[in-house]
Queue: 2 jobs
Job 1
Amino acid sequence: MTYKQIKWMILFVPTLTVGAWEYVRHQFLLSYISMNVGNWLTPVILYLVSVTLLTKLFRMLERIQMELQHERAAKAAFEAREELARELHDGIAQSLFLLSVKVDRLEHNGDQGQYRQDIYKIRKTVHEVNRYVRQAIANLRFDPTPGEMLATNESLDYKVRQMIHEIPVHVDIQWTIPDAALTPKEKIELLACIREAVVNIEKHSGASKGWITGEGDQDQWKVIVKDNGKGLTADPFQFKDRYGLNIMKERAEDMNWTLRFLSDSSYTTVEISKEGEHQ
């Protein structure tokens, strides 16, 4: 039975039931059932029909609506996944092309100062391509089947929780940013920044515990990655070999986000925030 047929049946079944009962009552049962008793029987019959037939129709209608919602959710998630794939593909392709140009220039460059600078840029590009590939594997390794999409909802919260399972440091997560508040591009860039911060917790901080919090809405949000490691003794962006941190900074600048590093004797904090529009 189609969705439209169920709706029409829900509308007409009570009307036809009452009409049929009143016709039978007035034509054949007036000599057996008084008018007062017949008036009481009308709502009772309507209730019985509603409990039996209409309840079943409503369940069918709800099931069809849930299936439609699931299909829409799966389609939206698949479209978002395709968008993520395009973004990653474009990033990898552009980075590899840039790398080839730099290698060609390096072969014909005799200036030692420029040579070292080009080597640094090539290493940075290779590092960025590697991160694009890792992110592509993490985000696109599974087929976007409706059941899996609905189970995980493909939320950034879910991806972050999956990410921290790969490191030995215990990380607590508190995430309240609605997934709909982030565009596919924002998800890519924010996940990459969080991954870099988490990798730093694992490799450089010597921390025993970390925390990730995300709060806010579509217009204004804040993500904090904190650990109880040894902290930073200087501005991390002044070192050219910190490719990951510099790429994180570039990502934040490209997205017009605010990136801050805070460090003291107890905690190191990476804060990424999107500020709301000023009125």
Job 2
Amino acid sequence: MLAWERAQFDRTVADIFGYHALQLGLPELDALQANRMPHRWLATGEPVAAAGGAAPAPHRAALITDFAALPFAENSLDLVVLPHALELGADPHATLREVGRVLVPEGRVVISGLNPASLWGLRQRRAQVYQRLGWGAPFLPTAGEFIGYWRLRDWLRLLNFEVEAGDFGCYRPAVRSEKWLGRFEWMDWAGDHWWPIFGAVYFLVAVKRVHGMRLLSPAWKAPRGVASAPVSIANRAGKTRAQSRNNQ
């Protein structure tokens, strides 16, 4: 799953341009490594050493902050990536609202999350039932809750985001053995073609839209000046009266 997500982030953020980019959570995955913006930050809800066991990449400055109260001005970031930050956060609604606040108009948010409608989601729910009975532990993290793909799209639409792209991946069952992972490799191809919405993880790109805003194009040519000299207007009736007076 980590390899699939890294490939999706690298492919997507490489073509997003601007000046300021921010990653929220999951320091183990450098979701901005393929991005070329000059200013990139990693924000975590706890010290990076405690969260990931390793220091952040040298090109990223680490911030410890509340995801619902980011230390950035309104309309100041061009890109925000959230690798599993919503489902592991305490208040995903507040986090999305804060992302909408700090993004510039036409800025992009890139989100990855675990799909509850998948084999991995089914195993997690079964493990939670077994845990209540004292049989084993959940397979995936229990902090927060899974957010469905279509549910997340509705949240983004309410916040004036337009979904630009979406994808699913990791269709194999959640097994720990490399041998069995290899045997189920055919399911990734089959799932991508036959049941694409049941991947274990989804990937989504959305654009912040501002209603009533009109982008101004650069003025490549100077506008033509309007002549300011007075222009005489002939009055046929006045000219006829003047000629008759002269004849008299």
